[in-house]
Amino acid sequence: MAKDRGDHNEQACKQVDGEMTRVFELFGKRWTGLIVAVLTEQGAYFADLRRAIPGISERMLSDRLTELATAGLVVREVDAGPPLRVAYRLTDAGKAMEPALKELSRWAENHLPSGGKGCPEQFRG
Amino acid sequence: MAKDRGDHNEQACKQVDGEMTRVFELFGKRWTGLIVAVLTEQGAYFADLRRAIPGISERMLSDRLTELATAGLVVREVDAGPPLRVAYRLTDAGKAMEPALKELSRWAENHLPSGGKGCPEQFRG
């Protein structure tokens, strides 16, 4: 990130930097971050992912997985079965997000009060 | 985050954890992350923020700032002027996001190729 310039008026390209823009083009969409967070723990079948993310629709999950695959964060693997199932896992680029997700999680623990919507404490890993 | 359970089928509340859910309820919306990233550098007037984030509309910026204020990350301060202007800055909770944003930025630098949409290199801070 750019250094503090201590001046509200300096005009030389005071735009948000390219890395942040790229991060939030991807993660500034509903569900994307949660999908990566679930896959950080382990690979998952499509149905597992739906179950792990309350409220996500099949269509949304499918669209987000496609975007994540296009960005090179997720790979799709077909399990010949039977039953034929599609599994998803993170690529090395996806796995490399773990430290950032941990920082975000730590931050939320300290600074975003729980609205009681998460997983009940006794079930947490 | 929960530990790897090494088992696709374990069912005991395999839901994404509460912290991640809270983070992405807020940041899984277009623009929110970029607004915080800009304010991490310094406080800014509304017009500065619009200029810093190419493509954001007045309405979107206003809505997102309201959400960030409600979440306790941003405060709004009226500069009596003239001209009367409204400035925004991060609270301590907002400032505490900096390590997470830095991790995300580092990650993007290494793993999200630039599409050439960011600030031209010669202007970066």
Give an overview in words.
The structure is a homodimer of 125-residue chains. Chain A is mostly helical. Chain A has a single domain, classed as Winged helix-like DNA-binding domain superfamily/Winged helix DNA-binding domain (Arc Repressor Mutant, subunit A, Orthogonal Bundle), CATH 1.10.10. Chain A has six helices and three strands. In chain A, strands 1-3-2 form a three-stranded antiparallel β-sheet. In chain A, a hairpin with a 5-residue loop joins strand 2 and strand 3. Chains A and B meet through helix 1, helix 2, strand 1, helix 3 and helix 6 of A and helix 1, helix 2, strand 1, helix 3 and helix 6 of B. Chains A, B: InterPro entries: HTH_HxlR, WH-like_DNA-bd_sf, WH_DNA-bd_sf. Chains A, B: It comes from Streptomyces rugosispiralis. Chains A, B: Residues 13-116 form the HTH hxlR-type domain. Chains A, B: This is Helix-turn-helix transcriptional regulator.
Order of SSEs of chain A: HHEHHEEHH
Report helical residue fraction of chain A: 40-55%
Structural domain tally of chain A:
1
Task: Write the CATH fold name of chain A.
Answer: Arc Repressor Mutant, subunit A
- The percent range for strand residues of chain A is 5-15%
Spans of chain A of 5+ residues with little confidence (pLDDT < 50)? 1-13, 116-120
What order do the strands of the largest sheet of chain A run in, or round the barrel if closed?
1-3-2
* Count of extended strands of chain A: 3
- Name the CATH class of chain A: Mainly Alpha
Supply the CATH superfamily name of chain A.
Winged helix-like DNA-binding domain superfamily/Winged helix DNA-binding domain
Distance between the amino and carboxyl termini of chain A: 33 Å
Q: Could you say which structural class the secondary elements and strand pairing of chain A correspond to?
A: mainly alpha
Oligomerization: homodimer
Mean pLDDT of chain A: 85
Supply the CATH architecture of chain A.
Orthogonal Bundle
Q: Using only CA atoms, what is the Rg of chain A?
A: 18 Å
Biggest pleated sheet of chain A = 3 strands, antiparallel
Shape of chain A: globular
Work out the largest interface and the residue count of each chain.
A-B, 71 and 72 residues
Domain HTH hxlR-type (chains A, B): 13-116
Keywords (chains A, B): DNA-binding, Transcription, Transcription regulation
Protein name (chains A, B): Helix-turn-helix transcriptional regulator
InterPro entries (chains A, B): HTH_HxlR (IPR002577), WH-like_DNA-bd_sf (IPR036388), WH_DNA-bd_sf (IPR036390)
